[in-house]
Design goal:
This protein is mainly alpha-helical. The protein has three helices and no strands.
Length: 70
Amino acid sequence: MDGWVWDALAAAWDEGFAHLTAYVQAEGSARVPQRHRTADGFRLGTWVGSQRSKQDRLSGDRRKRLEAVD
C-alpha cells in the first residue's frame, strides 16, 4: 500500500533528516534558522532545535547520522 509505514515516528524522523540533508546541500551549513520552513511547509528549524535539545536522549544511530552531516 502506497504511503504505509510500520513505524510512523521513525518515518517522521527520517523525513526530518532528509529535509536537513537537502538544506545542508543547498546552504552548505546545518545551522538552520529556528523559523525556517521548507518549500513544502516542513518546520525544519523547529525539527533541528528539537534534535539539539534532546541530544542526550537520541539513539546512537540517530546521533551518528546527525553528526555525519557535513
